[in-house]
Amino acid sequence: MLPPPGPTPIRMETPDVPLLTAREEDGVKVFHLRAEPVKTEFVPGRPVDAWGFNGSMPGPTIEVTQGDRVRIIVENRLPELFAMHWHGLEVPPDVDGVPGLASEALQPGEQRAYEFTMHQVGTFFYHSHFPMQELMGLIGLLISHPVTAHEPRVHRDVGMIFQGWAILPNNTVPNTLAMEFNWLTINGKAGPATTPIVARLGERIRLRLVNLSMDHHPIHLHGHTFHVTGTEGGRIPRAAWMPGNTVIVGVAQAREIEFDAVYPGDWMVHCHLPHHMMNQMVSMVGPLSVSRPGMPTGIGMDEGMGILTQGHALADHLGPSMGRTLGAGNIEQAVTNAPLDHGTHVDHSSHMMTPDAAVPSQPPPVDHSMHIGASAPEAWAVKGYPQDMWMVADELYASKPECDGLRPGWTGSMMGMMTLIRVLPPADYDRIMARKAAQAGGSR
Ligand SMILES: [Cu+2]
């Protein structure tokens, strides 16, 4: 183990989300938050029109210390009413933010100061108290540190917010009415665009996991055993810590986990719900495709989520629009989940729902490249094929220092609510930190 850090709590890291800077004013820590539309990307080339704070979705991370007098000035730059709630904080009713109950909602353009003394310690968050606005991304972390660090002290204190989204291919606006979700994010990014946590071998790490979505997320850590050391209500007494490698983070809950990063390697942290380990799912039928000229796309929201109003999933007018796509690549691959007869000629074009003569009547030759997984010659005859979603796009992340030295092909396993904790020997750790410092210096 590395020697523990000093007695003062170390600062938070929230990968892909900035920390919010405070201004000191007569002994009060003053923060500014603007609720506003935010253009973002879940993965490169997947734009999303979300709502967030200060240009970030989720909003920037607020850090305070127990005993602080805190003033948070909130400005509503949304085109409608907005109400800010401080989740888990024991504050007066008018600060609590439920519109109509003890305070008024903020009109468009209005701003309001929320002031309180922080007497609690733990993982809290702020969010809109209008449910549909929550689903547009209006949430951020609010961390309250103790004056003296908890024992055993940690070297790294990392925050993550889990969110789920329904956004059809060729759309950029989340459908907040949907009950099925095809994009799953950690701090506003989906794997492999989630920035890995780079740890030095021997560090003790705390993860603060927060869920504001429509599902519970069983968050699983590879290669290490952790203890659950805190909830949204604060620190758990040590005698009651629970060992594990998977912790369910329920909607609106927080879970703090801690572990000693003693096993070198690149380790996954991810939600273990199978559908939360994918990007841009739509339906399980039709071609594996992205759109190209001549293919009907952009059908209604219901059909896109698998609710058919007429015909069947393989009908001519639905097929290409219902193809499952991974949001990457630029080719169309003729595949089908329809029953096939072994050994007989199968005209796949009959399942391809397009009159386009370019669609092959035989399955295309297997692409053995790194970029789309290979399949066996008889794969087409196996009912259920294809299931695998192996797609590699390492080159998109080559410039990220945090991804330096990952094994070629690593992006093939990273989708949805997934990120990495890289436990690195000192030489590798120092190389990445030097690259990060150089990049930060160069961008000034
Ligand atoms: Cu999940």
Radius of gyration: 24 Å
Highest-level CATH class of the domain at 12-276: Mainly Beta
Query: What order do the SSEs take from the amino end to the carboxyl end, as H and E?
Result: EEEEEEEHEEHEEEEEEEEEEEEHHEH
The biggest beta sheet, please? 8 strands, mixed
Distance between the termini: 35 Å
The name of the CATH architecture of the domain at 12-276 is Sandwich
Shape: globular
- Count the beta strands: 22
Unreliable segments of 5+ consecutive residues: 284-297, 320-370
The CATH topology assignment of the domain at 12-276 is Immunoglobulin-like
Strand residues, percent? 25-35%
Helix/strand structural class? mainly beta
> Taking all residues together, what is the mean pLDDT?
84
Bound molecules: copper (II) ion
CATH superfamily of the domain at 12-276: Cupredoxins -  blue copper proteins
- Which percent bin holds the helix content? under 10%
Describe how the helices and strands are arranged.
Elements: E1 12-13, E2 23-25, E3 28-41, E4 47-53, E5 59-65, E6 69-76, E7 84-87, H1 93-96, E8 111-117, E9 122-128, H2 131-134, E10 139-145, E11 156-165, E12 183-186, E13 197-200, E14 204-211, E15 217-221, E16 226-231, E17 234-235, E18 242-244, E19 246-249, E20 254-260, E21 265-271, H3 301-304, H4 319-322, E22 418-424, H5 426-442
Parallel strand pairs: 1-11, 3-6, 5-10, 11-14, 13-22
Antiparallel strand pairs: 2-3, 3-4, 6-8, 7-9, 9-10, 11-12, 14-20, 15-19, 15-21, 16-17, 16-18, 16-20, 21-22
This protein binds copper (II) ion.
